[in-house]
């Protein structure tokens, strides 16, 4: 056995032995892992410093990519004395990663060579902005990811024995939140798991609706838009969805969207936003703290930068989200840009319901940096528009924003309405609602009205941002 593999397996055993990955799955604790979830802040800081030093040293010694990339930027691992020194590490963006993957397929030189033959799961991005980037997950990474999932599923969503959980995320290959979550994290919690897959809902609608009714699904995980569509379908067919907890994945849910979800899912008592990436990053909305998403700090470190300068954003300012996974040794992702646009404000007081000490985002993650657009010099994101669309009477909440220029003179949007005929009064009132909510006049809004089912979707995600700008 190579020394690298030996060390990898030793670290994996250490994480389990020290309780960071809980191994006694079925228990009576209110929190999945109270020892770790309620650690003292000073202990979390020490842990982050230790783990950041360890993963940086590991990457320098074992991955040609980081050694070459960091040397070219003048960075050396000895520069890290404390976890707050993370801002000294050069930012890694997807274009750098993609160059390496293209030159050295399939994983590039970023993966530890000795571990590449032992990966248990291959993840990949959608490739919507170019060549997909692939990730290799080994036994340690999957184990920790499943632990992180179990923490919020058990604690927040009451996913426990006798409960039925349906995963209507992407069940196709290369998606880490699909089969690995259903087949493993659910088993840890002792729940019954249904791997439905949201991408087939449109073609097998009657079959999926029958499953919801027959199995009396307690917890449904999918995008906010598919949640809304399923509820609307149930109402139209004259039955009530059984869901008690709605897990909202794939995009931030506007507050008005949540209100609409409770209207179409009358048995739901809780709607929780779940933010995450295919790479394994995550932040989960804490019940009773709307919009505040907790980060498992034993798992990763976030920092926020000005995307124009790469310098740390000032507290309270918005910027680009940068993330470091502390326990991904097979294919380290260190100071990797996630492309999300967030406010640099975190809360560290224990939450009042569970006493969790890990930090929380002070407000929701509204969207990706590339989803920002301008109309009449007003900087906007789709979530702001979504909140307004849900105030327009007789709409399904489904919409597409068409981006035709870097600074548009009008908001060009397609919206679904249930009205068989749209008159001038309805159209004018809708433009007024939209404009007033996002800082425009009604004359700055151009609405294309369509019947339900005529907006653009990508699988189980509503395509809220349709980029029609000519590529240079």
UniProtKB/TrEMBL annotation:
Stored InterPro entries: AMP-bd_C_sf, AMP-dep_Lig_C, ANL_N_sf
Record carries keyword Ribonucleoprotein: no
Example of a GO MF term: ligase activity
UniProt KW Ligase keyword: yes
Keywords, comma-separated and alphabetical: Ligase
Gene3D superfamilies in alphabetical order: 3.30.300.30, N-terminal domain of ligase-like
Top-level taxonomic group: Archaea
AMP-dependent ligase C-terminal domain mapped to chain residues: 381-469
PANTHER family xref list: BLR5969 PROTEIN (PTHR43845:SF1)
Protein name: Fatty-acid--CoA ligase
Organism, scientific name: Acidianus manzaensis
Phylogenetic placement of the source organism: Archaea, Thermoproteota, Thermoprotei, Sulfolobales, Sulfolobaceae
């Amino acid at each position: 056995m190579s020394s690298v593999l030996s060390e990898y397996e030793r670290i994996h055993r250490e994480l389990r032995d020290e309780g960071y990955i809980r191994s006694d799955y079925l228990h009576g604790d209110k929190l999945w892992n109270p020892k770790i979830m309620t650690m003292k802040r000073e202990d979390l800081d020490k842990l982050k410093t230790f783990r950041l030093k360890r993963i940086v040293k590991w990457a320098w010694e074992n991955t040609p990519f980081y050694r070459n990339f960091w040397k070219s930027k003048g960075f050396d691992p000895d520069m890290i004395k404390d976890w707050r020194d993370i801002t000294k590490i050069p930012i890694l963006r997807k274009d750098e990663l993609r160059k390496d993957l293209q030159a050295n397929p399939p994983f590039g030189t970023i993966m530890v060579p000795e571990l590449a033959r032992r990966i248990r799961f291959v993840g990949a991005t959608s490739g919507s902005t170019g060549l997909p980037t692939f990730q290799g997950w080994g036994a340690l990474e999957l184990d920790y990811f499943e632990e992180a999932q179990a923490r919020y599923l058990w604690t927040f969503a009451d996913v426990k024995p006798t409960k039925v959980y349906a995963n209507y995320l992407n069940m196709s290959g290369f998606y880490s939140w699909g089969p690995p979550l259903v087949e493993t994290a659910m088993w840890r919690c002792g729940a019954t798991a249904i791997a439905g897959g949201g991408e087939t809902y449109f073609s097998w609608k009657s079959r999926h609706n029958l499953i919801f009714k027959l199995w009396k699904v307690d917890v449904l995980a999918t995008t906010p838009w598919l949640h809304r569509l399923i509820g609307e379908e149930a109402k139209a067919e004259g039955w009530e969805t059984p869901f008690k907890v709605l897990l909202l994945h794939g995009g931030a849910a506007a507050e008005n969207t949540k209100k609409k979800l409770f209207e179409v899912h009358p048995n739901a008592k809780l709607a929780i936003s779940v933010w995450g990436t295919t790479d394994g990053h995550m932040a989960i909305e804490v019940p009773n703290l709307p919009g505040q998403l907790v980060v498992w700090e034993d798992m990763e470190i976030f920092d926020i930068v000005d995307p124009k300068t790469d310098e740390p954003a000032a507290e309270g300012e918005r910027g680009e989200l940068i993330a470091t996974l502390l326990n991904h040794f097979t294919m380290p992702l260190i100071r990797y840009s996630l492309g999300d646009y967030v406010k640099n404000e975190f809360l560290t007081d224990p939450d009042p319901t569970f006493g969790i000490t890990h930090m929380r985002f002070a407000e929701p993650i509204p969207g990706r940096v590339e989803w920002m657009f301008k109309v009449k010099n007003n900087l906007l994101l789709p979530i702001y528009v979504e909140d307004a669309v849900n105030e327009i009477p007789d709409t399904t909440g489904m919409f597409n924003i068409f981006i035709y220029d870097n600074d548009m003179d009008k908001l060009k949007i397609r919206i679904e309405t249930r009205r068989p005929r749209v008159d001038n009064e309805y159209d004018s009132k809708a433009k007024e609602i939209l404009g007033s909510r996002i800082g425009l006049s009604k004359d700055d809004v151009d609405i294309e009205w369509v019947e339900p089912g005529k907006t653009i979707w990508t699988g189980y995600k509503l395509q809220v941002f349709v980029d029609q700008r000519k590529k240079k």
